[in-house]
Amino acid sequence: MTPAAVNRLDSILLNRNWIWSRHPFPHVSATDVFTADAYRAFEQAFFTMSARMSSYLPQHDTHGTTITPGARGPLTFFASRAWHDLLAGLLGIRSTGHVNLGLHHHRPGSANGFPHNDLNPGWFVDYRSESGIVLAQPDVCSYTTGEAHVTDTAPRRVIRACALIFYIANPRWRCGDGGETGLYKRATDEPAQPYCSIPPINNSLLAFECTPYSFHGFIRNARSQRNSLIMWLHREESEVTRRWGGDAIVNYRV
Amino acid sequence: MKARQRSAKRICLLTGAGGTLGAAFCRMCRHMYNIVAVYRNRPPPVPSQRQRHVDPLRPRTRLGEDHHPVYEVHADLTHAGEIERVVDIALARFGSIDLVINAAGIALDAPFLDTGRFEASWLQQLQVNATLPMKIAVTVLNEAWRDRPAENRRRNRNVINISSTSGLFVYSRPVRGAYAASKAALNFLSCHLATEFVRFGVRVNTVAPTTFPTLIPTERVVKAIVGVDDGALTGRVLMLNARSTRML
Q1: Which listed residue, of A177, A240, B57, B242, carries a Cα 20 to 30 Å from B110's Cα?
Q2: Residue A103 resides in a domain
Q3: Within-domain flag for B78
Q4: Within a domain: B5
Q5: pLDDT of amino acid B174
Q6: Is A60 domain-assigned?
Q7: pTM, two decimal places
Q8: Closest CB from A18, A30, A196 relative to B43
Q9: Could you list the residue range(s) of the whole structural domain that residue A14 is in?
Q10: Which residues on B lie below 8 Å from A209 (Cβ)?
Q11: Residue A192 and residue A178: Cα distance in Å, rounded?
């Protein structure tokens, strides 16, 4: 990361004492991540964009939207080279620069998710980018299947390398509200009985490398809505195949 | 918080370490105590044998904040055998226990008129908020303290149960009756336990704060706990509300 990028990030990071944990799989969590001004700007932008959360993901019982290359406003910070490099450096990822960035909204009473590892493929169409960051463009090609919606495009398949969940625009969280992200030892664990859980407290985050063992899932939010910004960096398929074998890659259920 | 003059760190078994109070105690006091931090849902955000601080801008640099790690133990104390396992781990790790802080607790909303829900929440809160602290204290007594009254007095060994002013006063919160009664039970059980533990040289007290951090800072509750541990009283309830601190 360049000194200029470090300085820029340092000016908006409120807390640089993040926590790296080994169990049940390596992950990083942090609270009070950004300064109050920066967080407020992100939250306001979230509310503005949340009106566009039209797509419904039935597997996860959540509504969402993708932040695409044409987007403007504070949330594009998360698509910056500086933030990308922070995340890649933190988790020791060699990323291709492909980023899927989006917003999720779970309505109150959304169903439990299921333990899954996010070691999935993602499809992108490369475009000219000064920063080298290439965002997903669902209008051009499906992120999950690679199906092109525009002629003369050449979708490219890469694999999720790490995931970030930034909790934002939520009501004040209390124990018993649900909406946590559960972390599990096994794919067969009960969704409501995680090894440990990360509560959706505003301005906090969870990040982890996507491996065959990074089992996590949404826990039913009984009382309040649960909102988050989600983000994946990607790596070459050959690297995943070398480390864990090609059959470790989890294709989406269609 | 300033480190007290002690020849060695005291050994503290803390339940509810992942909660607001437990995490604050770990953060503020890990330089003063060897803490066995027992949690169910999430570990306290402090360095441990499984966690370390990381600077996101310099992830390869070791940070000074990693000194004085806690020893975290993941357990659901409502499951059979878990209390014994946790106490065994604490003794295997540190050889003895000087202070037990029962900070694990739950607060469930349940109106009386919703009979089924009320009964379930009452039994659950009675178990976690009142019965478990007694079982933990008695297990530590049987495993570590029972035959050492002189050593217990010399080490000023004690149990601190975390209650609430809800167990002392009737607030007009219609859905919190079961919670308040479970905390009232904890207050009385603690006082009676203190009389039984006197002959073993072990003190038992209760700290009963109002809502933190909304009405009082969590740090004030932590300081009160350390004060009770440092003191000589037993069978008392230390009430902390927004205006005053009172020993009952």
Answers
A1: B242
A2: no
A3: yes
A4: no
A5: 74
A6: yes
A7: 0.86
A8: A196
A9: 1-96+113-122+133-152+204-254
A10: none
A11: 9
Of the candidates A157, A164, A117, the one whose C-alpha atom is nearest the C-alpha of residue A238 is A157
Say how many domains are in chain A: 1
The answer to the question of residue A220 being in a domain is yes
DSSP B48: B
Q: Return the pLDDT at B4.
A: 53
In tens, the pLDDT along B26-66 reads 999 999 999 999 999 889 999 999 999 999 999 988 877 77
Helices (H), B141-176: 149-154
Hey, what long-range contacts does A137-141 have (CB within 8 A, 24 or more apart)? Answer: A137/A66, A137/A68, A137/A69, A138/A66, A138/A68, A139/A68
Residue in A closest to B46 by C-alpha? A19
CB < 8 Å to A16, chain B: 55-57
pLDDT for A218-249, tens place per residue? 999 888 899 999 999 999 999 999 999 999 99
Residue B6's pLDDT is 53
B107 touches A: beta carbon within 8 Å: yes
Residues of B in contact with A23 (CB under 8 A): 50, 74
Let me know if residue B3 belongs to a domain. no
CB spacing of B56 vs A18 below 8 angstroms? yes
Paired tokens of B11: 């050994």
ipTM: 0.89
